[in-house]
Every structure is written in C-alpha cells, then in structure tokens.
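Still learning. Any example?
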Amino acid sequence: MDLVLVERSGAVATLTLNRPEAKNALSHPLMDRLHGALLGLEKDDAVRVVILWGGPSCFSAGADIKEMDGASAQALSKDPHLSHWDYVGQYPKPLIAAVSGFAFGGGLELALACDMIVCGETARLGQPEINIGVIPGAGGTQRLARALGKALAAESVLTGRPLAARRAFDAGLVNRVVADEAVLAEARRLAAEVAAKPPLAVQAAKRAILASFEKPLSESLRLERQLFYSLFETQDQKEGMRAFIEKRAPVFSGK
C-alpha cells in the first residue's frame, strides 16, 4: 500500500497520508515517502500549490510511538527523520494542510509547517506529548507560540489538551473552518486561487513571510526588497503590469 497518494489537478497537487489503520501515524517509512513526493512536486513546474490531506477521518495521530519507545537521546540526535519536518517548513511552494478529525503531536507539527490550514468543524488540534513524558520536537512549541502567543501555547503544550477548530480559528492558528465534508473541497478552492497567481511572485512572497519569523526585522526587510527587485526581471511582472494598464486578465507563465 502506498503510504502517500499523489493526485494532480491542474496546477494543484494533493498528497494524501494513507495509513488509516494507524490513524496516519507518521512512521519513518511514511515520512520518507512524503519527503520523496514533495521533492518530486517541487521539481515539477506544472505544480504550483500542494495540499496535505489525511482523509476524512483524521489528519494524523502524530509520530509512531512504537518507533521511539526505548530510543536514547544520542540515537535520536543522529536520526535524520526529524529533518523531514524542517523540509516541509522550508518548502518553496505554498502548502495547505486540510485537517479533518484531529491533528495531534507530529501531525499538528506537520500542519503547522504548512503555510495555511483549513479545518473541519469538529477538528481538534493538539500537542499531547507532555502526557508521555516528552515535549514537541518538530517545531510544535515554536510555531504554536508564534501563532497563538505565549499564554495559549503554554496552555496547549503544558496540559496536552487539544484546541477545537473554532478556538484555533479565533486564535489565528487556522485560516478557515468549514463543514467536515467540505474540508478538502475548500482547501482545493484556496489552492486554486493561489495557483492562479504568478508562481515566481508567490514563491518570493512565501520566502519573505517565512523570513519575518526567522530573521531580525532589518534582515527580513532587506530580503523583501531584494525579492521585490528580482521580480522585475520576470515575464510575469511585465505581463501583470501590462494587463493592469490594458484592463484585461493577465496570463502568467511562471517565467
């Protein structure tokens, strides 16, 4: 059974985590397959936006605890698999997480590494690692704190209690909350809207936004300016501005 299903529709690709018998627990083989699928789509110029979806029942229950049980700190420090979450977090193309059911632990960290999150009404998002004697290790404490603020992030991580989708939306953690059966369709609508924009500008904008969380303001402003200048060397910039002046719809080529 393929652990990650790949579906393309126009400029949007959907990657479906496909380990339902284990609630999409993020085993090493699954994460290896996800990394490979994302790498392939990164190199495919026809794909402009990628959706991560866990199916209608759950996004992911988190890391595969059976793989970690009995591991030592030294062994974990040499394990390359946590770098897969880093790759998702630095992915050059827009990523949208479509969350139905629940996203817990590493599953929530995977969703947080995406650029946008669409949730179903009954979805729950949480970092329950504290209940098994550890803490989030793939970005949960850092990205939650940046998204939720210190107080709510501390409550979520220190109690292990999940957030309901509506509270997560009100706190700014997710972009949209829709009916459970409409999650994937809504994620695809959002993806199609982004995919219709000039892809080089989209990727530049994403890079600048990520830098705002990782660099001092002076450095991120400098990067933003450099990226702004660089887009004036693209055909899409010329097409976009000409179309605006000529009052017509632009046709972007990704060049």
Notes: The first helix runs from residue 28 to 42. DSSP finds twelve helices and nine strands in the chain. The CA atoms of residues 131 and 232 lie 52 Å apart.
